[in-house]
Amino acid sequence: MKFTLSWLKEYLDTDASLNEIVDKLNEIGLEVEDIVNPADELKGFVVGIVEQCEKHPDADKLNICQVNNGTEILQVVCGAPNAKAGLKGIFAPSGCYVPGADFTLKKTEIRGQESNGMLCSEKELCISNEHDGIIEIDNDNLTAGMLAADALNLNDPVITIETTPNRGDCAGIYGIARDLAATGIGELVELNIEKISGSFDSPIKVTIKPDAEKSCPLFLGRYIKGVKNGTSPEWLQTKLKSIGLRPISILVDITNYMTIGLNRPLHAYDADKLSGDVHVRLTNHDGKINALNDKEYELKDGHTAICDDKSVLGLAGVIGSVESGCSDDTVNVFLEAAYFDPIATAMSGRSLQIDSDARYRFERGVDPEFTYAGMELFTKLVLELCGGEASNVIKAGDTPDYHQVMEFNPNRTEKLLGDKIDFDIQAEIITKLGFIIEKISDDKWNITVPSWRHDIAGFDADIIEEILRIYGFDKISINPLKRDGSIAKTHLTDLQKNTINAKHALATRGLNETYTWSFMEAELASRFGVNDNQAQKSLTLVNPISQDLSTMRPSILPNLIEAAYRNKSRGYPDSHFFEIGPCFKSADYDGQIMVAAGIRSGSIVSKHWSESKRDADTIDAKADAFAALEASGVKTENLQISTNDVPKWYHPNRSGMLKQGNNVVAIFGEVHPMILEEMGIDDMQVACFEVFLSSLPTKKKKKSTNIAMLKTSSLQPLSRDFAFILKKEIEAAKLIRAIHAADKKFITNVDIFDVY
Fold this sequence. Notes:
- This protein has 756 residues and is an alpha+beta fold.
- The chain is elongated.
């Protein structure tokens, strides 16, 4: 939202400085993004008067002008078609930087003639895109040498604020002024709304078809005959130019003025171009529309449209058509002031990719009650600036029911904020923001929400937020929270603790943590776990970012494998990655699980002096899985290793599954070469693991917080090396379990350090 300081002060009676107003805007949540003073960009530019203008002897389209800059007369070669003697324009001397052209002027020679500086167009000064000729100033009070910013009324700071989607009321300068007035920085200027009586009935009627009653509950129309459209007065042009809008004509400029100033989007139709009456209905095979933004759009069915008896005049709340637009030849005009549903407006604009000032405001919610006042102000401006005779206002539909009365307890403010705010101050703030208070008792107020505050949902917190925002966050005293003990108790769940511990363990083992998309291609998802058609359908996104990200991921491994392959393609063959995040098995409530997954590809350089560089293999992946499990509190010596029912994306002879009873807690191994080939990955071996953190058993809570007495052994710790000759079919894990079981009390650790 962009506005000038002077425009704001038309609605806010204040003596506050620019800095004070900016600080207050930030304090109340209307964050100031930028402040630009056009005068700073026009330093060095002055009013120049062309004393003489002659044709260039060696160029048909160039003129030689003698320009008076207030101190001297300089020769300037100018190619503008409107250059002439007596013209008052904006002169840029040599050494001046021209922002619109992005260069610095210097004394030069053009076709053999000396040129000192230049006479500027509006585009060269970044005022507008007008570049057909140099600026002509028709003002007898201006003298040569006067500062350009003063001559063009461009010494007015322009403020840009960030409006959040819920604050549609601040999409107009008047709404911003209302918020500022509530802080006490100034007084809100009441609008002078006079009801204008019509002298005849409008020859154009309006109907809202039943299918559009929800998307357009209210439509006001008015016929004005005998208008004279043309160039807007200077004050109106200056306002629009100051915020980057290009003046078009009086009728169009009035609608822009009302939209920006009062958050009341309006539209004006050339009444003589309409065929019959106006109808609001949903589109149904209506073909194309030539929009006012000079683009053509193919209309889809179901959009709310304003139509006459023959064609579509515009998309409701979004944009009008060229065919019904006003021009300098417009004599009779039909005015529109309507209320359009935010959701319907947003869907129409989003479907056709049309952004407009009207859509921006309607989809955030404008004031439905202000529709009537908006029509009167619209009519008043048209009659004052264009003349003409107005009809009676015609009305279709009715104002939507926006009335909301909520019960509020002012004592709740202290409970939520932790600080007491006087009831009178609370009431004053709420009242200044436009709310109406009926005090039933000291702790019970009935509050009527104003029609422009669509963001108030009826909760105490909504009102308290408004009070705090205006009262000031900086005024809330610092009160430390009371707690039972000096050390706060942890509130992390077992899964959260396991996730953190597993991250630390895997990072310690030399794996790099990554973050990848939770989506993947449907065909890739089918290779890594989504085989069932129903599951595939449930995990397919309705509106994916792209077809490559159309399915929720059943496994993290494909993303890590592709990342490793990209690294290898760029000359980094050694990739050791892990990620902890959600995987999806179905769309059911328990279909999302937390998984710690990792891969190793390429070489591993051991930190031990006796080991040399080698390729990563299944044993490394197994060790990674064990590290993550141990960090999560799992006693790995009790796990069973199974090679049955290992998922198909693992190598059948180089993989294993870790179980606690029938519960699978992890899988490790090498990725099947056929899977890598189907993924388009050649000459690459990948060892990987998946630890299912969601499947780990929850830890039993200790019945007592007392620390058990330390019992030390009277025996000295010893380690022994044993050699066993076994059949090749016996797994190493079975041997370890058998040794542990020999004496659980005295045997504390078993490790295989060599195989021969």
